Structures are given as structure tokens and as C-alpha cells.
């Protein structure tokens, strides 16, 4: 494995780039990257930013990066694009807009796209985040386009999840899809100079008020911004800083980290015991039963028991 | 288990309703329903209909039901609603519009909603479809709102997948989300009396033409309809009938059925070996290591090996 741990720990760009490529291209997702770096993980603050195409995520990211850079914090952005190769490409265009940070050595921007399998992308993005964490990036941002399971998985991997909408997102808010509403710690109504910004903010606010909260639970905030003009940015950053402080004080940020390690171990072991179980002989036997339609006489439970007791 | 197999096979509504409730409320998804009915499965044609809220899915379903009822075929509709209880409810409103079929004994319409777990809904919908299959429903339609992983899972469970859009879906088509483009066998541009219908159809057509097709592979079709006025419906039904014939002639429909049985068996066995592996002792040991941060010294691979070799 072409991973240069010392180089990553020294934050050398070449070592980081190579490790990222390794993660992106690895046939099997395994524990190797996390294992190599595990002594040096757990320092970074991980943020997920999601929202529909055209909501202005890149301009907002630009503002966030600016803010953290004035504090001399190193920032990594991982753009996760779950769209298919057949229709993809939206995110690459956005990349150009963050161009002015490319020459800044304290900023690292990387796109990751789907390679065939549906499930692996969020895990690969997490491995990439581990690389940045070990390399001393204090802020790690996952950017996604906000449309499906990958976003939910990425939200699980973030300490703070930001959902970016625009004043016209009324319909999207109505049908607030697949749990986006539950995962947000902070809603941004961007392009708030446009008509309907106040209504959109009020609509989300009232949905949030319908929820019940446990004692000490974070109440998601709604902030209106205009990233291009720069309005609302300081309020957004204050809210982010407040949430980060909340996560530290409550110990949630540490718990999140441990849960991610646990999830990695669980999924690794579960894959391992499955591949141990499914010998060629068992697979052949199952396929034979299915082709011959044995299972109609035998019953599925019996068929399963035969496989389990082999 | 309160499942009356004889009653289901006789297509008694009470027996079907009870079995559906059993599937919806069962704590654990297992093979029991499929096992009980397996001798009687594999007769139905399973169709998935997906698309954004407001695209007119219910009116189209109404037309489809009408068509098949004139042929005296029994039709079941399973509405799968992956939205959260916090924001859900869109589908229930639509139900009213199919009301005129409620009194028709050859039509069965059932909604299924998420109960906590993200993963189970598509599997429960498949169990529901098995009940209808055994009860002699020739046509089984899954309806979803087209926004995420559940739709992809439901598409896997359907022989024909229909994606319903409207002329204004241009943006949706551009960003054609999470693989919707790949799963459709038939695109419907509904409300085609509105401006932009031809452009939307042309846009999809050209995206479809960019794809490469294997020899003998189905080429997805695009049909414009206006479900309320009744235009385009006969073309839609002809295309559906054509796809069904294609599936039968190529043997794909039988293969689909076997693959679903296989997937059920695989997922059942994988869950079983996982729960056998994760004894209380192993779980405690893992949690202890995580809390004490043992893994930082030990390394994850070593930690995993200790668990595997226990």
C-alpha cells in the first residue's frame, strides 16, 4: 500500500493526495487507512453541507473557508457526488468558484465521485476525512448535493450538518425529503435578497417548533444569508461556533468519533463473517436450489437451515 | 402468527388485510410470509411507479387500474411512503383521488409508511406484494415519491419501473438524482398540455441516446400523457404491455423473481450469522475497548482479530 504515514502527519500535499487516491480507488473498503492513522485521529471538527444544486453551497463554503483562514485554521473540503457518471458533473462546475483558495496551502479541496457501488461512497469520504484529520486539518467539510441516502450517510459522519436552501425551496421544504429535516443542525436560506426568504425561514421555523426536544438537545437554527453579498455570514459563523462549543461541552463530539470507529469495526467484521460463511460450495448449492425451484417444495426456512447447518 | 394462508389463497379481503398488518408491524423481518406462500408465488406482474409529489401519479394509476379492470385483471397498489412522520402525509391526500376504485373488489390499495428503521420499508413492501401475488392479483403496483434509496430498492423489486415527470421537471431532469435515470423502463411526461412538454421529452430522449445498450437490452421509452384529460393513456398502456411481453419472452420476469427470492435468503442468512456472532460478551468487549481508547495503542486490525478469534 502506497501510503506514507509520516508524510501525512507532516501534512505533505503529495502524501495526502496519494492516500486520497488510494482510498478512492481501493477495491475493497477495509480498515487499513484508519488503522494506520488511528493514533492521530479525533482532532478535527467535521461539518456536512448539503442542499440542492444552485443553492449557492460553493459561495457559502468560500465564506466559511475565508473565516477559518483568518483564524489560521486549516480547512479541507470533500465534495461527495452521488450522481451517476451518466448524468453527473454538476459539482465540478462549482469547484471553479472556490478557485481562489486553491493557491492557499492551508486549504485542500477534493472531489469524490461514485465508482459503481452505491454503498461505498460515504465510507470512502470518511476515510478521506481521516487522512485530513491526521494531517492536522482542524476543519473538514463534506459537501453533498442533498438528494438521497448518501447525504444521510454523510450526515452521520459529520458533527454539524448544514442544510442550504433558497427562498424558492418552498416545495422542497413541503416535501422535505427522506429525513433532511431531521439531520440539520443549521438551516441556511441563501440568496435571501430574493422574494420569499422570510416566508421560507418562517416555514422551517414552524416545522422545527412542531418537534419535541429532549432536555439539553440542540435546537436547529435558521439563518438567512446572501453569500455573494456577504450578508448574514457573521451570524452563520456565530451559530456554527456555538454549535461546535455545544458539541464539545456535552462531549458529543468525542462520542461521535467513537461511534464512527465502532461503526467501521462493525461493518468490517460483518463483511468478514459473511465472506467466510459464503463458500463457493454454499453459493452453488443455493443457486442450484433456486434454478430447480426446489424451494417451492422444501420451503425457504428449510432451505436456509440446510445452508446454515452445512 | 395470525396469517390465514387458505384465506389469502381464496383472496379473502380480511385474510389479506391481516397478513398485510402482520408484515407492517412485525418486529423482525424474516422469511415467514414468503415461506408460507412460496408455492403460490411468481404469477404477478410487478410495476414500480415513482416521481415527485404533484406529478400526477395517482391520476395515472387511476387510468392504469381502469385499463386492467376492463380486462378483468385484479390490481393491487402498494403506496410506499419513505417520508418521516415529522413531515409526511403527502401520499395520504392522493389516496382520496383513487377513491372510486375502493368499492371495486378487484382493486386493493394499501399505504405503507416508515416505522423507524430506514432499511426495512422496501422489504416490507415486497412481502406485501407476495401476499397479493398469492391472492391472485395479476398486477401489483408499488407507488413511491421518488426521492431516495427506498425508490431504488423498490425499483429493484419491480419488473417494470415507470418514472413520472411533468414539463417543469427540467431542473430535476438535469440533476437526475441518485440514479433515477438508470432505473426507468418508461418515462411519462404527465400534464403534457403545459408548456415545455416537448422539450422535457426531448431532453430525456437525448440523455437516453447517450447511453450504450447491450444487444437485446430494453430501450427506455418516453410517453407524454395528460392523465386527467385521458390523452396519451393508450400509448402508455401499449408501451407497458410491450415491456411486459419483452420481459416474458426474454425470461427476465422469471429471473427477476428468482433473484428476489435469492436476495431474501441472502439477507436473512446474513442477519442470522451476524446476530450469532455478536454475543453480549463480544459487544461488551468492543465497547470497553472503545471507551478506554485501547484501540489507539492496539490498532484496529488487532482489535478486530481479537474479536474474530474469540
What this model shows, in words?
Chain A is an alpha/beta fold. Chain A has 2 domains: 263 residues, Rossmann fold (3-Layer(aba) Sandwich), CATH 3.40.50.300; 31 residues, no CATH class. Chain A contains 15 helices and 7 strands. In chain A, strands 3-2-4-1-5-6-7 form a 7-stranded parallel beta sheet, with helices on both faces. In chain A, strand 2, helix 5 and strand 3 form a beta-alpha-beta unit. The two termini of chain A are 37 Å apart. Chains A and B meet through helix 3, helix 7, helix 12, helix 13 and helix 14 of A and helix 3, helix 7, helix 12, helix 13 and helix 14 of B.
User: Which structural class fits the helix and strand makeup of chain A?
Assistant: alpha/beta
Q: What is the name of the CATH architecture of the largest domain in chain A? A: 3-Layer(aba) Sandwich
Largest sheet of chain A: 7 strands, parallel
Strand line-up across the major sheet of chain A: 3-2-4-1-5-6-7
Classify the fold: give the CATH topology of the largest domain in chain A: Rossmann fold
**Beta-strand proportion of chain A:** 5-15%
Low-pLDDT sequence parts of chain A: 84-94
* Helix/strand order of chain A, N-terminal first: HHHEHEHEHEHEHHEHEHHHHH
Query: How many helix segments of chain A?
Result: 15
Superfamily (CATH H level) name of the largest domain in chain A: P-loop containing nucleotide triphosphate hydrolases
Note the gap between the termini of chain A.
37 Å
Number of domains of chain A: 2
pLDDT average of chain A, as an integer? 85
Please, what is the oligomeric state?
homodimer
Count of DSSP strands of chain A: 7
Q: Which term fits the overall shape of chain A?
A: globular
Radius of gyration of chain A: 22 Å
Amino acid at each position: 500500500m502506497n501510503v506514507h504515514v509520516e508524510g501525512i502527519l507532516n501534512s505533505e500535499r503529495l502524501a495526502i493526495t496519494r492516500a486520497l487516491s488510494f482510498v478512492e480507488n481501493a477495491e475493497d473498503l477495509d480498515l487499513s487507512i484508519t488503522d494506520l492513522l488511528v493514533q492521530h485521529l479525533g482532532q478535527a471538527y467535521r461539518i456536512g453541507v448539503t442542499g440542492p444544486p444552485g443553492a449557492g453551497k460553493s459561495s457559502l463554503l468560500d465564506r466559511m473557508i475565508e473565516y477559518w483562514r483568518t483564524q489560521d485554521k486549516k480547512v479541507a473540503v470533500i465534495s461527495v457526488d452521488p450522481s451517476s457518471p451518466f448524468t453527473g458533473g454538476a459539482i465540478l462546475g462549482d469547484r471553479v468558484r472556490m478557485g481562489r483558495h486553491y493557491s492557499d496551502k492551508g486549504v485542500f479541496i477534493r472531489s469524490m465521485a461514485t465508482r459503481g457501488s452505491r454503498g461505498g461512497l460515504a465510507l470512502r469520504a470518511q476515510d478521506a476525512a481521516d487522512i485530513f484529520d491526521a494531517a492536522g486539518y482542524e476543519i473538514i467539510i463534506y459537501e453533498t448535493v442533498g438528494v438521497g441516502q448518501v447525504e444521510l450517510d454523510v450526515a452521520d459522519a459529520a458533527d454539524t450538518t448544514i442544510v442550504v436552501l433558497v427562498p424558492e425551496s418552498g416545495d422542497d421544504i413541503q416535501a422535505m425529503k427522506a429525513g433532511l429535516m431531521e439531520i440539520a443542525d443549521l438551516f441556511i436560506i441563501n440568496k435571501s435578497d430574493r422574494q420569499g426568504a422570510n416566508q421560507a425561514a418562517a416555514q422551517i421555523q414552524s416545522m422545527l417548533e412542531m418537534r419535541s426536544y429532549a432536555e439539553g438537545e440542540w435546537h436547529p437554527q435558521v439563518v438567512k444569508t446572501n453569500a455573494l453579498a456577504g450578508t448574514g455570514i457573521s451570524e452563520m459563523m456565530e451559530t456554527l461556533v456555538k454549535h461546535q462549543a455545544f458539541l464539545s461541552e456535552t462531549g458529543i463530539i468525542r462520542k461521535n468519533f467513537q461511534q464512527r470507529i465502532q461503526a467501521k469495526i462493525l461493518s468490517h467484521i460483518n463483511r468478514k463473517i459473511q465472506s467466510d460463511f459464503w463458500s463457493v460450495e454454499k453459493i452453488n448449492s443455493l443457486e442450484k436450489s433456486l434454478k430447480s425451484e426446489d424451494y417451492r417444495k422444501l420451503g425457504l426456512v428449510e432451505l436456509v437451515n440446510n445452508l446454515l447447518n452445512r
